[in-house]
Amino acid sequence: MTSLRRRPARVALVVAALVTLLTSAGCQGGTAGGPSTPDPDPAQESSMGFTNPIFDQNFPDPMIITAEDGSYLAIATNGNGSNAQTLVSEDLVTWSQGPDALPDLPAWSSPGKVWAPEAIKHSDGRYLLYYTTRAPDPEIQCVGVAVAERAGGPYVDERPDPLVCEEEQGGSIDAHPFTTSDGTRYLYWKNDGNAVGVDTWISVQELDESGTELVGEPRQLFKQDLPWEGTLVEGPFLWEHEGRFHMFYSANSYASPDYAVGHAVADDPLGPFTKTPEPIMVGNDVAAGPGHCALFEKDGRVWMVYHAWYPGEVGPDYPGRTMWLSEVTFDGDSVSVVPPTLDYPDRP
């Protein structure tokens, strides 16, 4: 028998819409010229909660950046006809479709496998997009970098070849740019070892001032070595807090409910990193396989954006990996992340 289970987040949205409709109908019963409903108090509105997922369609490997006009831009893996799909928002909880941030790929690549793009604003006002795409050898993935004048692009990659491409290690994916408080730039990534049956390593290498060239030699930081991590680690994201460097990463198969978020800490962006033994975010009864996260700060609070599947629907592109928010707090070398929650009590 076919299950008729409804998705909890969608039910919540439908209920909210019905309540709004009934309230509006009740208000229309007054006489013409009667008292009008006052505009909502912005302070009261900002203290209201929100519903996860904040975007209820396939939007894998998300990250959020503040655009040049103060609005917010979310960027994710290819989908919806885009190489690098985007969403735009004024409040971080209501999102609408944006343009393709990377409409044209460089001559050395081809469409169809653009993964995990991450944008960062350069000190000179430009925006840089680090992304994974099909390499000159179509059997592996490599990392490119593209430049734009606006957060939403269009980004253009003018390099004649990839920025990072570890051909003997299965390729290179999941690039993450990071700038320390003293202005030093680094690029983190993962070799795609699980694609060819070798270890996966999170690696780092310094970037030059332009952010488009690597300096020195890469350094391997850590690989999969904990039981919960399965055969891989991936999706690195570094956050500096009170002089310590917190590495958030994902592990296990992305197409599995066992996918989860891990954490490691160091006193230097080049390591060595000490892992937290167990994952800091796992699936529950409302979200399966949460992971590939990015962090951002809003009004002194740190938030994690990540993707997750609906339980029982892990794997297909529809509805796919939807976009969620959870708050992150720090206590020395430890971090806490609010588990995936449908009805979140307050907004960012």
TrEMBL record:
CDD domains: GH43_ABN-like. The keyword Signal applies. The record marks D174 as: Important for catalytic activity, responsible for pKa modulation of the active site Glu and correct orientation of both the proton donor and substrate. Keywords: Glycosidase, Hydrolase, Signal. The keyword Thylakoid does not apply. Residues 27-52 are annotated as: Disordered. One of its GO terms (biological process) is carbohydrate metabolic process. One of its GO terms (molecular function) is hydrolase activity, hydrolyzing O-glycosyl compounds. SUPFAM superfamilies: Arabinanase/levansucrase/invertase (SSF75005). Residues 1-25 form the signal peptide. The active site is at D61 (proton acceptor), E234 (proton donor). InterPro entries: Glyco_hydro_43 (IPR006710), Glyco_hydro_beta-prop_sf (IPR023296), Glycosyl_Hydrlase_43 (IPR051795). Belongs to the glycosyl hydrolase 43 family. This is Glycosyl hydrolases family 43.
